[in-house]
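Throughout our pipeline, every protein is held as a single compact record rather than as scattered files. Such a record has a labelled line for the sequence and another for the backbone structure tokens. The remainder of this section carries one protein's record, kept here as part of the documentation:
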Amino acid sequence: MSNSIKIKASGSVANVSCGFDCLGYSLDSPADILEITKNNSSKINISMTGLGIENIPLIPEKNTAGKAIISLLSKLNIEQGFDVKIEKGIPPGSGIGSSASSAVGAVYGVNQLLDNPLTSRELLVHSMAGEAVASGGFHADNVAPSLLGGMILIRSYEPLDIIQIPIPEKLWSTVILPDYMIIQKMQERCYRTKSLLNLQ
């Protein structure tokens, strides 16, 4: 059994059309890259590099990846520590499942290192527990596509009922990720406009 694994966790588009909180699909890119290694303690250590990490907490209980792992280990009643290195390829607040991808990559990787005690569908609940740290609620519209791939319809949350549906042949998805400096310049332009108009 391996002590380390590297995972690519894809981004996702949720709230597709009229499917608010219940319809989403996965993207090939961008993605988060997670390297997860067993350690000799019961602690989960999170470190991060990449896009927009300045405001992401590294405390496991407040980090989507860390919380997802805690949920999984609690379910299995296992005390095992992990070092989790996350390279953020999906900026937080981008609307394409940044928090969800970290949670999904974490539970998928840890499950692999524990010799796959849970199925992919069973991992979904623990991914949702991680996602809840960022979103404030147990939603599957980002984590389910990231974990299972393709297009996912959530038919019910109580009980959790999801299905994969065929992706329309002519569906095209365009993802635009503005650079931070572009956003900053737009904000500065708004401030200058307010100043010129004497607005508070």
Observations:
- The helical segments are 64-76, 98-113, 120-135, 143-148, 180-196.
- The radius of gyration is 18 Å.
